[in-house]
Amino acid sequence: MPRYDSYGRQAPWDAAYAHETHRHDDDLTALRSAYRVLRRISTLTALGSFVVYVVLSCHAPGLMGSKIIGELSLGMAWGVLQLVVTFAAVSWYGRSAQRSVDPLARAVRERAVPAGRNAGAAR
Fold first, then answer.
1. Using CA atoms, how far apart are residues 3 and 116, in angstroms rounded to an integer?
2. 48-57 per-residue burial string, b: 16 or more CB within 10 A, e: under 16
3. pLDDT by residue (tens digit) across 77-99?
4. At residue 4, what are phi and psi to the nearest 5 degrees?
5. Whose CA, among 15, 36, 62, 103, lies 20 to 30 Å from 53?
6. Are 34 and 105 in contact (CB under 8 A)?
7. Is the pLDDT of residue 116 over 90?
8. What is the Cα–Cα distance from 102 to 111, expressed in whole angstroms?
9. Does residue 39 contact residue 100 with C-beta atoms inside 8 Å?
């Protein structure tokens, strides 16, 4: 039996609302988790590569100064590789977000703003 507040409206704590709230919380948890995984992987990839570069530059200058091809040293090649790794991490982040995070965010948004009500604001 539904309960009513002092204005005669159905109280928000009835069973149907509780089920909907629980489902919404599960969606938000999944969204946070997917976003967290994306952030960690892309950040650790770019930052990890940079930290290895810096550590090798500080502690193994002979290795980083060794010539690979002509006048190109390993340190210079690794420095240029930092740009490639950073670009790849950002690109991967964008594609993965479109595939995994954006659909979850769209589902959460659609449940938060019912269709027909403020439809223009939910774009």
1. 26
2. ebeeebeeeb
3. 999 999 999 999 999 989 988 88
4. -125, 145
5. 36
6. no
7. no
8. 14
9. no
Assign 3-class secondary structure to the chain. CCCECCCCCECCCCHHHHHHHHHHHHHHHHHHHHHHHHHHHHHHHHHHHHHHHHHHHHHCHHHHHCEEECCEEHHHHHHHHHHHHHHHHHHHHHHHHHHHHHHHHHHHHHHHCCCCCCCCCCC
Q: What pLDDT does residue 107 have?
A: 81
| Nearest alpha-carbon partner for 50 in 58, 102, 27 | 58
CA distances from 108 to 15, 25, 27, 98, 117 (A): 20, 9, 6, 15, 15
The pTM of this model reads: 0.61
